[in-house]
Amino acid sequence: MRMSLFTHAKRINDRTVDVAFQTHGKLGGVVTVLFDAPQDELEICAELCAMRYLIVERQCFKVEVKKGSSIGLVVSRGSIRKVAKSMTTNKPIAYAYAGFLRTRLMGCHIETAKKLHPHLKDFDRPVQTEPTEEHPYIVERHTITAAPMPHEPVATAVGTLYVTRHAIDQFIERSPNGQAIKHPWNSFLVQIQHPELKEVPLPSKVAQHKLRKYTDAELPLEERLKALPKLYTHTTSNIYIVVVNSVIVTTYFRGQEYW
Questions:
Q1: At 54, is the secondary structure helix, strand, or coil?
Q2: How far apart are CA 251 and CA 175, in angstroms?
């Protein structure tokens, strides 16, 4: 059975959107999303921000979600499904807010509401910390500031790294057990959150190639070296994780030379 989250966005002004929400359980309420400046696709971006906040930070399902297939999202705008599938042509701004759908929640079920959930019609429900017989729901109000997050942040032994969908796809494709990986995000987390994750030197040939390809030859060598990708691994696996400016851009395994 999927854990479900229902959301519905309503613009208040050109910098503020209220997002009403309700889980499949007894939690509901409103997340007010504040933007620093007016922008296109305001309601879509706000709904994405609210969903990530509720699932990842507020943990509205009372667990850390590691399997996207366990989540069902019932949203108010069909464009959210498109940005989740990397269909970015018409919604480039919203795409930058949907990184969690392409990584942490990859495989989740997303549908556009055909009929509005009754509790999403009321943006003024009073806060209620405990369910009662008369009002059997917890009702919360939250205020957050919108921030684009095209890649999903993860705390690791070497600091916060940002996961791209490409890195996960390459992990599945290049893993010796790729076909058997049922929950890619969870499997990938096991690798990058290993307590013994550490940086290792780039192979010399690779370093020379990257210096020529990605850095300006007129810059001082010290500056050029800072622009090189960093390579991480740990003792219990043959995986290599390639990082540029804290973003995991790809992965490969010992004996492979894909990058």
A1: helix
A2: 9
How far apart are alpha carbons 150 and 96 in whole angstroms? 4
Residue 77 scores a pLDDT above 60:
yes
Question: In angstroms, what CA-CA distances link 181 with 103, 113, 178, 232?
Answer: 15, 31, 5, 22
User: In the block, which residue shows the tokens 């729901």?
Assistant: 137
CA distances from 115 to 7, 8, 82, 119 (A): 12, 11, 20, 12
Name the helix (H) or strand (E) containing 173: helix 165-174
| H helix or E strand, kind and range, residue 154 | strand 152-156
pLDDT band at 213 (very low <50, low <70, confident <90, very high): low
Same domain assignment for residues 32 and 109:
yes
What does the alpha-carbon distance between residue 167 and residue 169 come to, in Å, rounded to a whole number?
5
pTM for the whole structure: 0.90
Q: Which helix (H) or strand (E) holds 188?
A: helix 184-192
**93-123, pLDDT tens digit by residue?**
899 999 999 999 999 999 999 988 888 988 9
**Tally of structural domains, the chain:** 2
Domain that holds residue 197: 152-253
Looking at the fold, whether 41 and 61 belong to one and the same domain comes out as yes
Residues 140 and 157 in one domain: no
Cα–Cα distance for residue pair 240/17, rounded to 1 Å? 42
For residue 1, what pLDDT is reported?
79
Cα 59 from Cα 113, distance rounded (Å): 22
